Amino acid sequence: MARIDYYFATLSPYCYLAGTRLEDVAAKHGATINYKPFDLAQGFGRTGGVMPQDRHISRIEYRAQELPRQAKKLGMPFNLKPAHWPTNGAPSAYAIIAAQNAGGGNLGLLVHAITRAVWAEDKDIAQDDVIRGCLSEAGFDPALADSGLLQGAETYARNLEEAVEAGVFGAPFYLVDGQRFWGQDHIDDLDLFLQGKL
Is 74 strand, coil or helix? Predict the structure, then answer.
């Protein structure tokens, strides 16, 4: 059975646009998903990337066109300039780590609820009430927002180190059987790889 290491950032618009398509692909192939939230800003700094606001104007303008196009293509609501971005993504990442350790809910739905809160609902995912709401929506105990913070911080930091070591330089990023897939627009390629066609 294949295992997909899924590196993602709760503040990434592209992780939001991934929706739950990864979970659909994994279910189709009987694969498991290892959810690995990491600090994308730190990852950029260590792998030659540049934060969106610091990029050349041509890249900034392209991003401003591409994100709404992708959202429209996927039929997903999207706000290019959300009210609470950037914000502190660590608390939501810690909650995802705690939920993965606790079990009992739908992790894919949790990740999507958190990213949707940023990019479609103008919510601040650094706020405990927002995180609790997302945990509840995904079938987890909302008290997980307040538990395992030390373990969450340690795992979050370790995920960054593992991401850099594994060649991850953006998000969403999917690794399976030594193959790397970058971007929500490559989920179909991941599907084809798991079918043995790539």
Answer: helix
Domain boundaries, the chain: 3-194
Q: Which amino acid is at 108?
A: G
**Both tokens assigned to 69:** 């196009």
CATH 2.60.120.560 fits 3-194, yes or no: no
The Cα–Cα gap between 22 and 31 comes to 10
The three-state secondary structure class of 125 is coil
**pLDDT tens digit at each of 198 positions of the chain:** 899 999 999 999 999 999 999 999 999 999 999 999 999 999 988 888 888 888 999 999 999 999 999 999 999 999 999 999 999 999 999 999 999 999 999 999 999 999 999 999 999 999 999 999 999 999 999 999 998 889 999 999 999 999 999 999 999 999 999 999 999 999 999 999 999 999
**Which two three-digit tokens encode residue 129?**
């009430």
Residue with token string 């949790």 = 110
- 190 neighbors 197 (Cβ within 8 angstroms): no
Largest distance between two CA atoms of the chain: 45
Phi, psi of 107 (to 5 degrees): -65, -40
